[in-house]
C-alpha cells in the first residue's frame, strides 16, 4: 500500500500541533525557539508532499525559501536570546515580559 | 513496503517531536529536534525530493542546530527548575487548544476527499536539483534575490544584537601590571622607546595617567 497524501498531511498536522503546544508550555526561550523550528518543518513537509503529489516543483522552491527564512530567524533570534541573557542573566520568558532590553 | 517506511519515519518524527517538548534540558531537546529533522529528511527522500532532503540535513540539522547547541552551551543553560510559580492553567489550555487544532485538521482530512491524486508512474524530474535550479533562476528569480537581501539583513541584525557595546566595554577593567606597551603605541606624540610601565588600578586612572580624556565618550559613541 502506497502512502497517501493525507497521511503526510496528518503527520504534518501532528508535528505542527506538538510545536504549538511546546511554544505555549515551555518557559525557556531556546526551547520555544526549537518548537518554532518544529512548526516550520511541519509546514515544509506539507509543501513537499503537495509538490510531490501534484508533480509541481513550486512547493519545493517554497521549502527552499522557508529554510532560508528559518536560517535568518535562527541568527537573529539567537542574537536576541544572547542579548536578553546578558541583561537579565536568565532565559525564562517570564523574566523577559518587558520588551525593553 | 513504502507504507512501512512511512510509519517508521513518521513514528520517529512524532516521538522525537514529543521528546522536544517533554525534555527539561534544552540540550536534550535540541538532540531530539535533530532526530525530527533527520526523519523528515528520510520522508522527503520517499517523496522523491532528494535535493530538499539534502538541504534539510545540511542546513537544518547541520547549520541551524549547531548554532542552537552552540548558544545553549555558551549560555550554560541549566535545567528548568521545577515548581516555580507559573500560570497553572497553561498546560491544560495548551492541551485543549492542541486537541481543537487536531480535530479541525482531522475534520478537513476526512471531509475533503473528493480530490483524487492519480499517482503517475512515469519518472519525473520534479525533485531533482536540475529542475529546482532552473525554476529558481528563471521564474522565481525575484524571490531568490529578495532572499539574499533577507540574509544580509539577518547578518547585520545578528551582529548588531550580539555585540557588546562599543570598542571599550563599560565592564572592561585594567588589570594592574598585566601588560607593558611602549607609550608610543598609545600616544603618537610621546618619545619612542619609552617602556616605563603605567601603574593604574582602574580604567579611569590609566586614562588619566596616559592623558586620554575622552575614552568613555569614544566608547559610548558607537
Task: Give a written overview of the molecule.
The complex is a heterodimer of chains A (101) and B (222). Chain A contains three helices and no strands. Chain A has one domain: Helix Hairpins (Orthogonal Bundle). Chain A starts with a helix and ends in a 13-residue tail after the last helix. Helix content of chain A is 77%, strand content 0%. With 101 residues, chain A is mainly α. With 222 residues, chain B is mainly α. Among the domains of chain B are: 1-78 and 125-146, NADH-ubiquinone/plastoquinone oxidoreductase chain 6, subunit NuoJ (Four Helix Bundle (Hemerythrin (Met), subunit A)); 183-221, no CATH class. Chain B is 64% helix and 0% strand. Chain B contains nine helices and no strands. Chain B has helices at residues 2-22, 26-46, 50-75, 90-111, 129-138, 141-162, 183-186, 203-210, 215-221. In chain B, helix 1 (2-22) packs antiparallel against helix 2 and helix 2 runs antiparallel to helix 3.
Furnish the topology, listing elements before pairings.
The complex is a heterodimer of chains A (about 100) and B (about 220).
Chain A lengths: L4 H21 L3 H26 L3 H31 L13
Helix pairs in contact in A: 1-2, 2-3
Chain B lengths: L1 H21 L3 H21 L3 H26 L14 H22 L17 H10 L2 H22 L20 H4 L16 H8 L4 H7 L1
Structural class of chain A: mainly alpha
The value of Rg of chain B in angstroms is 29 Å
Give start-end ranges of low-pLDDT stretches of chain A: none
Under CATH, the topology of the domain at 1-78 and 125-146 in chain B is which?
Four Helix Bundle (Hemerythrin (Met), subunit A)
Q: Over all CA atoms, what is the radius of gyration of chain A? A: 17 Å
User: Termini of chain A, distance in Å?
Assistant: 55 Å
Strand content of chain A: under 5%
